[in-house]
Amino acid sequence: MSSPASTPGGRKRGRNTNPPTRKFPTCSILLGQDSSTGDLMPMPTSPATDILSPAAPQDTSLLSSPRPSVPPNEVDMSSPLMYGTPMRGTPARQRPDLGSVRKAPQVDLHSEPPSADGAVASESNAGQRLVIWGTDVNVGTCKEKFQRFLQRFVDPTSTEDENAGLDLNEPLYMQKLEEISVVGDPVMNVNCRHVQSFDAELYRQLTCYPQEVIPTFDMAVNELFFERFPDSFLEYQIQVRPYNAVKTKSMRSLNPEDIDQLITISGMVIRTSQLIPEMQEAFFQCQVCAYSTRVEVDRGRIAEPAVCRHCNTTHSLALIHNRSVFSDKQMIKIQESPEDMPAGQTPHTTIVYAHNDLVDKVQPGDRVNITGIYRAVPMRVNPRQSNVKSVYKTHIDAIHFRKTDEKRLHGLDEEAEQKLFTEDRVQTLKELAAKPDVYERLSSALAPSIYEHEDIKKGILLQLFGGTRKDFSQTGRGNFRAEVNILLCGDPGTSKSQLLQYVYNLVPRGQYTSGKGSSAVGLTAYVMKDPETRQLVLQTGALVLSDNGICCIDEFDKMSDNTRSVLHEVMEQQTLSIAKAGIICQLNARTAVLAAANPVESQWNPKKTTIENIQLPHTLLSRFDLIFLMLDPQDEAYDRRLAHHLVSLYYQTEEQMEEEFLDMAVLKDYIAYARTYINPRLSEEASQALIEAYVDMRKIGSGRGMVSAYPRQLESLIRLAEAHAKVRFSEKVETIDVEEAKRLHREALKQSATDPRTGFVDISILTTGMSATARKRKEEVTQALKKLIQAKGKTPAMKYQQLLDDLRGQSETAITKELFDEALRALADEDYLTVTGKTVRLLA
Amino acid sequence: MPSTHDWINDPVGVVEGMFAASQSNPSSGWEARAVEFFKDRLKEKDAHTLVPSLNDIPMHYLKPNSLVKFRCFIQDMFDPEFYMGVYETVDPATQAKTLRCGKYKDVTECGVDFNSKNTVTAERQTFYCVPIPGENPWVKERYANSSQARVVPSTSYVPSRQKRSYEEDDDMDTQPQKQREAHAGPQSPTEHHGNGDCKRQETEAPSSQMTSASHLDLNFPLPGEKGPSCLVKVYEDWDSFKLNDMLEVYGILSVSPALSALADEKDASSNLLDPTESMETAEEQRVHCPPASLVPRLHMLYAKQLQHNNPLLPSAATSEDNSAFLASTLSEMPSVREELLAYLTHVLLGDALAAEYLILHLISNVYVRRDVLPLGKFTLNMSGCPTVASYTERLYQIIQQLVPSSHYLGMSLQNMNQIRLVPKKDYVANRLVSGALQLAKNTSLYLDETQLEQGQLDTTGVRNVTALGNLISWQKVDYDFNYHQMEFPCNINVLIASEGRSLLPSDCQIHLQTQVAPSHLEEYLSTMHMLSQASSQLNKFRIYLSVARLLDYSISDEVTKSVEDDFVDMRKDDPQSISAEDLHRMLVVARLLSLSQGQTSLSRDSWLRAKHIEALRRSRMEQHKCVNGNEP
């Protein structure tokens, strides 16, 4: 592994005998490729001729670029064309993704080829500047520029997860080179945005002529690498993989002008093909004299040699399959992601070819960003046919994949989440935020077709914004919940479902399920065996899918207990644990829950507590930050306004409605912007105000021996205050935010936690499922019962019914059977007595 | 200027002429002019009737590369494709280069120079179009009769069918046959009028769908449909078209056998050497490049979106024409309404109130959406339908005669568990497999719940019922894209006929009160007066129903005020009696009632009348509740 000219090197693909120069025809920047003949390169067919003669002269004839540092050699190693040559013994690997597989000439749509017709290279103004045919790329300059970029580019503000662990003040890519030398994975991912900010011209060339520029980059990076780490061993030479071309296109906007350019598109993988071995080079052996020869694929065809060069027998050569060279290839179908689609159209699909190690990197269902070269290939000309279909086949040769939904399983990748906002849009949003009544404006823009319920809308608005995410995992407390959970309950027909539908349509990661139809499995995740691959696949349910979004659950009360139980974990810990079919994992489910429940007795009974009305376990109820009642207020002024609202709904035209309310799109952007960019923190005064508010809440009840607030309520308050600060685009939570949070919280409490017996707000209804008065009452009955039993003296057993009658006779207030049972149970808990069937036995 | 004959029979010649002329003057925008030329031609009086229509003329009578029209429905949208807009050919003998135009063509001339600098790549979009699903026979007939295009198979023309059989093996030959079989078997429920056995048809339908799917499935949304389907190539503003739009496409018919030959060629040649060619699966190949003789290509020159497919109305070419027509019919509307009411009362066994509601239902239309809420829909649940003498099916036949497109869906258990209602994306073939809910706007969907018996719904069944529920409540269908669902808004009039209250939601339920004793029902039905197919009265009804839908509507401030007052008063008396939902319904009823009388704004009288009939309906429901207590 020393001399480049003589080492066959560690090629893996069964080419043990070929001399290194054989690589010439496969070089991807070979100039002949874009020219019309394609046969410009003499096809080396015998070892005798191809060691020296054809390559070198040709080189000079095509490109006499300034030769940089490399010592003169018998084969001109400095020429860019030598890109494919083993460098210090490390073999190059073909890059079919760049089209080094020869194809028919590409449709050339760039309008600016500076070269004159047919000229192989053109000289522009001063000093022997030569460019690759059909482009304005000068290999030498391009290489130098890229090396400079690698050596100097620093991005101190980088937040990408890929750069984790790197020193941000040192040249980023040099550190990556070091990483390559250590890890030995010869792939260098280059963020195009970095290139753009460093050298816009270089970036332009990269996107316009990727097929020519990327090999140049490869060359540059390899020179640099082997200069710095001369002793490192790589399987093959480093390949540069640019990604994140700023010219990101949606699939819909791809047009003929993008052909042969570097593009980045996002989409969802819908199908992957089997691995396709693609022949790169055919191996022929003469049946007579065993002389062997190789033929490169040319435009998808192999020209079988008719005559053996050695023994001159005709038609004696046979193809030896297992000595031919194949490369891996896979067809992947990508579909537009549902978010980028205009309404009423079907999604487009595009074919992507993945090569070599990119094969099997993605699975159907993955959301990916693909960087690659867009290609259009005309239908093959068939000599037997007079005319051809005038349609091109298009595909993308993938250079880089980036999965966008991985973060759902791993950490949160804020970068990918970021939506791009134009300057103008940000300006409009900020102007809107500066308005003093922005809170009211936004809340009224929410579901304008639903009448009033201002506080509920405000609550949902705060839910849409969410609190600030706090991470205490370092101290072992884990994440604090930042999402606000809301429960709406009330009479049927008070447009609860409509509100849910609206929210579901508004947020990008919304899920809508109905409690009636969903099982625990449908909400969480299930394991499925893929019918094709027989692999176990984890299919995520509604809660996981709405990670970072809102999960709307209608008919919450109709959900089975089993299903509801999974919500406990989700609603406080924000994770989902799965132990199923050998898969044990914890998925993130940082979802806000918006649920709607109907009262048990179809109509809300104002004489009963919330718990009694909807019959949900209080453990679950206490996890809701806000519980709202949607009731028919039954008052005349309200009726009038309602009627007006409804009638105007029916006769106003679309435009009139638009004027009155904010556009749904603006609202969407506003929320998205606030969620990504605004992370409010509590100010000093605000924390003081929060403390006071909490103490006040505790005080309300203490006078009557009731607890009216728990720490959970304090957390709710903080979340709401933070969300309100987000609405104002404020980085600081201030007193007004706390005020509003307090007000909203109180409003919700007033509705849901008022004890119908006393008329007081009593938080214990929600936390223990029973109001304090009811608990006191129970206590009293228990005591009375105990006294009664004691008064009876030493009777070891009593009749149940008789005891109840006795107690009823004694007590001045009515005692229900339930109350009596509870009292008995309480006494049984004290080990005072046991109840067996209809008899009550005392325990000694 | 080319004569009439030219532009219909040889549109390609016209286009090429313009292309050639533009070569001397490159910035002339010949493409826009070509489109403009055809538009102008078609504007001329009755010119569009001269163009033969794919809907009523068998394909083998049509000349390839002639101008045809097609009244269709966009069932699926394929990916955009790049084609050679301009290319250069080299004459092998003389080496002379000629520039040629590739627009509106599938196949290039021979001797294309792929490396020419003058090649221009352009983009076009392909839509898969089928005839309007559920279009009733009277509509088809009427359109066919109004056409003046007389197409006679010319002597110089060799039918493509015949030509194909020379070139190709039996595999190709069997296809059209199978196709014919698939269609000959079950008739669509839309096809028979009189024999009234929809039930049998429906149960047979799924099986027929399966057999045709195995070979070449033309992917019609409704089972048992027939007619040509077309790959429409769109050259301009394809973004303005949406899935499920109704279109009238004027375009150049291309049935070049070379297209199918090309596909064959590919199968035959070895795939080993060029894997790029074998990437598309056989299914995909079949769907995207079906034989041109079965699925012709239509290169769109001009298309207009259809607001309705009622042949008795002007097709809304210009809005002035249209409004003039509307104005002329307005005055007649009250009298037609009386006649229709009498007729429907007769059909609904003497129940005038139900007839009134049926009219309202038939003219209902989602006219606007407020965020998620569709306004103007009026799903009617007609409960208490007699189950004897296949009454519900007869009722459907009556409706079929009145509306341009409709579909009968018997909600038997078997049907619900088997048929595909929701369209689903088939990723193997890369197309949208249609379902019965993929319907054009204002199609009447008739759900016969009297067919439902006790039993178990399986997963498909539950999904189908949910889909129907969503359709009724939100007027949307969630198409199944496997990895996600996509919501498509729709505008379908759903009428549910049931014995008791329907299990599906509805905007309004009316219980049928027959004036006919059950014992006489059979007799009554047999003597039931059916209007003859072409009677002028029936045509009047048809015009009436379509026109009422197209009218504008408004509410004056005064009336608004009085409606509000009314509502407050009603609430004052008894808050439980009327909820916001009731007000919603009353506003819709009032709107439809006004429109049914040809009034374009709500009058006090109409409002009172709406209140009145609502009260009648409610009292009837109360009554009914008392009669058999198990009703909720």
From TrEMBL, chain A:
Q: Which residues form a coiled coil?
A: none
**What catalytic reaction does the record list?**
ATP + H2O = ADP + phosphate + H(+)
Alphabetical GO CC annotations of the entry are: MCM complex; nucleus
Q: InterPro entries per the record?
A: AAA+_ATPase, MCM, MCM_4, MCM_CS, MCM_dom, MCM_lid, MCM_N, MCM_OB
- Keyword annotations for this protein? ATP-binding, Cell cycle, DNA replication, DNA-binding, Helicase, Hydrolase, Nucleotide-binding, Nucleus
Q: List, for all copies, the residue spans of the domain called MCM C-terminal AAA(+) ATPase.
A: 438-646
Keyword Cell cycle (UniProt)? yes
* A GO molecular-function annotation: hydrolase activity
The subcellular localization recorded is:
Nucleus
**What Enzyme Commission number(s) appear in the record?**
3.6.4.12
Main localization, broad class: nucleus
UniProt key word DNA-binding: yes
Give the similarity note. Answer: Belongs to the MCM family.
Question: What job does the chain carry out?
Answer: Acts as a component of the MCM2-7 complex (MCM complex) which is the replicative helicase essential for 'once per cell cycle' DNA replication initiation and elongation in eukaryotic cells. Core component of CDC45-MCM-GINS (CMG) helicase, the molecular machine that unwinds template DNA during replication, and around which the replisome is built. Acts as component of the MCM2-7 complex (MCM complex) which is the replicative helicase essential for 'once per cell cycle' DNA replication initiation and elongation in eukaryotic cells. The active ATPase sites in the MCM2-7 ring are formed through the interaction surfaces of two neighboring subunits such that a critical structure of a conserved arginine finger motif is provided in trans relative to the ATP-binding site of the Walker A box of the adjacent subunit. The six ATPase active sites, however, are likely to contribute differentially to the complex helicase activity.
Q: How does it assemble?
A: Component of the MCM2-7 complex.
Name this polypeptide is given: DNA replication licensing factor MCM4
- Per the UniProt record, the source organism is Astatotilapia calliptera (Eastern happy)
Q: Which gene encodes it?
A: MCM4
TrEMBL record, chain B:
**Which GO terms are recorded in the biological process aspect for this UniProt protein?**
DNA-templated DNA replication
Residue stretches of biased makeup (Basic and acidic residues): 190-203
Gene Ontology MF terms in the entry: chromatin binding
Q: Which domain of life is it from?
A: Eukaryota
Feature: compositional bias, Polar residues: 150-159, 204-214
Q: Where is this region: Disordered?
A: 150-221
Which cellular components does GO assign to this protein?
nucleus
**Entry keywords, A to Z:** Nucleus
InterPro entries noted in UniProt? MCM_complex-bd
- What's the chief localization of this chain? nucleus
Places the protein is found: Nucleus
Q: Does the keyword Repeat apply?
A: no
- Family named by the database record: Belongs to the MCMBP family.
Q: What's the protein name? A: Mini-chromosome maintenance complex-binding protein
The organism named in the record is Astatotilapia calliptera
